[in-house]
Amino acid sequence: MPLDLNAYLGIEPDALKVYSQRAEVLAANLANADTPGYQARDIDFRAALAAAGPQGNALRQAATSANDLAAAGGADGEASTATGDLSTEQFLKYRVPLAPSLDGNTVDSQMEEAQFAQNTVRFQATLTFLENRFSELTTAIVGQ
Amino acid sequence: MALFNIFDIAGSGMSAESVRLNTVASNLANADSVSSSPTTAYKARYPVFQAIQSSLMSPGTGADPTRAADAAVQVRGIVESTAAATASYQPGNPLADANGYVYNSNVNVVEQMADMISASRSYQNDAQVLETSKSLMLDTLKLAQG
User: Phi and psi of A39, rounded to 5°?
Assistant: First the structure.
């Protein structure tokens, strides 16, 4: 019986990817906190995940409604190529600064730190979800 | 994986901030240096930061269009302050000119202290980002291992 691992894991691997890309953008903001004229950026998370999401959601619904994993496996080939070229570039947006600064830098270190911490917690939450899915699989394989 | 790039980015930030701390140290050390002419008097030094894609920092590699999010820092150069050196009348000083004046450095000690705190906070931020990314990567490696 073919089990499609991508369909089984759902949206979580894509979310993990977007979280790691967002961590990179936030790290770049923090590194450039003292660079004159640097404009802080962030990823439009909703849009970035939506680009990966519809296929994932459709897949999961197809798998649960038809109760047929083989059918979902056929559709998955398209989904993985669609999410494969997911690039952050098109989802990068400039931050609107709370207060203008003389040197044109729009990085607010405190806010970037908070966003980075939030991103980290969400990354770890996604890791936990994945971990649970893998342990479910292990339980199914071992049978106890 | 994007988390790998964070090592380059945060590393470049730490190295740039340490250059900044270095100039602060030079400036503070020379705050009381005197000279016999305004042109040879010590001038405060400042690094100029610039955002750059981190792959461009290592020689022989070009820009990577797939790394749009990647913005490391490089120190473009060091500039000297153009503020005028103040003269003080010290006829007993062996460095005094014909009129008995020596010329002080144009270092503003208060400004340097503020700069030092700013550089050290930014350095701490970068180090924290590095540490967090490292633990996230290690957590990912441990996925489904028990």
Answer: -110, 120
- Indicate the DSSP class of residue A1: -
Q: Which candidate from A24, A32, A130 shows the least CB-CB separation from B2?
A: A24
Whether A63 shows a pLDDT value over 50: the answer reads no
pTM of the model: 0.80
Select the residue from A9, A22, A32 to test the B interface by mutation, using most B Cβ atoms within 10 A: A32
Torsion of CA A106, A110, A115, A121, to 10 degrees: 160
Could you report the per-residue pLDDT of B36-61, keeping only the tens digit for each? 999 999 999 999 999 988 777 766 77
| C-beta separation of B70 from B5 below 8 A | yes
Task: Give chain B's length.
Answer: 146
What angle in degrees, to the nearest 10, is found between the helix axes of B2-29 and B109-141?
160
Beta carbons within 10 angstroms of residue A141's beta carbon = 7
Contacts of A28 (CB under 8 A, 6+ apart): A41, B9, B51, B69, B70, B71, B72
